[in-house]
Structure formats: structure tokens, C-alpha cells
Amino acid sequence: MLIAIPDDFPSVFEGSVAHERAKKLGEVSLDTTRGAEDGRELARRIGKARVAVNIRAYARFTENVFRSCPELRMISIWGTGTDNIDLAAAASHGVTVCNTPGVNAYAVAEHTIALMLAVARKIPRIDREMRGGEWPREMLAQLHGKALGVFGSGSIGTRVAELGSAFGMRVSTWSARRDSAAAKDDILRRADFVTLHLRLTPQTTGFISQRQFELIKPGAILVNTGRGALVDRDALLAALDLGKIAGAGLDVFHDEPVKPDDALLGCVNAVLSPHNAGQTPEVRRDGLLRTIENVENFLAGKPTNVVTA
Predict the structure, then answer these.
(1) Which listed residue, 65, 83, 102, 307, has the most CB atoms within 10 A of its CB?
(2) One of 134, 162, 214, 256 is an active-site residue; which one?
(3) pTM value?
(4) Catalytic: 254?
């Protein structure tokens, strides 16, 4: 049996404990070079594999990829997001898709709080000014006593809510499955901090757009560690430029890597990190192992963490 890892670039899987464990299940085809962004190349790398381990979100499993890989029966995702996989096409071709929910919850939640603090305390700018010989003295924002709106009630959003409460924040949560659009608007009007932890779907694309920025109170801070497309890009740039919000902490973007001429790089009230909120040794180790555990369980006829079958 062939297991394909077609998108290990930059490489995290090669030489890992999970890699060695995968070898015990069958032949492993591992590609650590750039190129899996192209659908035809992705299909070529998968070839006749029965299982594909998806490492990077830039590898898009489309209808054409599934059609070109008739032997494929399972995709095991390193991570939670499934927006790079056509789930309907996977189901129609009899491909089971599994992910690893919750593995990175603590790390991403901590990073979310770090971005909140970095923006509220203006740490990057103050650090830069001090290194330039200045001694900046200005009013900063604290978390204690502030209203935190958490959008997304999965493992990450739940942990962010817990940490926010520990800081003494007044926490409100919103779930796409449970709550109404009116409840969303109400939280946006009251929140001093808004954090996004939703899955990217057609329904959540542009979840925060111009209308929502009109609702958010002036001085509020937006943090997005979910997916870039949860926020309308033009509306975000306008809100930052016009001061409709105090600032934003962003770990995810519409185009990744961010291009050198991206307008966000010029926003002094935005703190940016390169989609690395979950990049800790613990998350990498545990997530990759869980990915292979999903493969083991699927081959044993007892699939786990199934997104679609």
C-alpha cells in the first residue's frame, strides 16, 4: 500500500517520529519540494496512493485531483482547516477526509492573546522607537475589564475564552451552528476585542466586512488567527487606515506568504505574524502523530476525526 505526502514544503514531516511510524504501514512517497500548489502536479505526486497525508493548505484537492487519482481512499490532514479540500468531491469519489482537531488549540489561543496584548500595548512600535533613541510615553490599553467577543466555539475559541476570563475580561462567545446574525451584531457592538476562530466556508467568507466594521466600536481591536478570508481585505485596510478600529493582530492572510508590496505591511496599527500561531515543538510532534494515527485507524476499519466519508 502506498501513502503519499505530496506537500511537505517547508519540510516538517521528513525524519519525524510520525514519518517512521508511517513507514510501518506501507511504502511512503514523500515530496519536500515546492510545486504542490499546481493541481496537476499534486495529482502526479499522489499517483496511485491509497492514502494522502496533507501537510500544507496550499495543496488544493479539487475535483480534477480526485478524478486523476482513482486509487485514493483517504486524506489525513495535519491541522483542522479543510478549506483547501473540495469535501463534496471527496465524498463523491469515496474519499474519507480526517483532520486533527484540538492539537494546536493551546498554542493558537496563547498566540491570540499575545497578539491582543501586542496591539493593545503597542509593543512592536514602542520597541522600534526605543531602539531608535526615543522614550515613548503614551496611554496603553489593558485587557482586564474589557469586553471580549470570541467568534467560533471550537477548541481554540473555547481556550481563548478561558484565557480571556483569566485576564478578567467580560467574554461573549458566538457559534455559527448555534447563534443568530443578530447575536453576532450585538457582540460586535459591545466588544473591545474581537477574535476570529471560525472555519472558512462559503458562509463565513467575509464574515467581517464593511457592514461589521461599521458596527464595531471605535477603539476596538480585531485579532484573526483563523483564516485570512474571514475578513474582507479592502474593508480591513479601510478600517485600519481611517481609524475605525484601534488596530489588528493578524496571523493569517488572503495571500500567503504576504507579498512585499502588500498594503498591510504599511499599517502601523497592525501587528503581523506569518501564520505560525501553532508552530511549537509540541504541536508539531503531536499533530503529525495524530495524523498518522488517523491513517492507522482508517486502515483498521475504524476511522477517527472524520470530516467527510
Answers:
(1) 65
(2) 256
(3) 0.88
(4) no
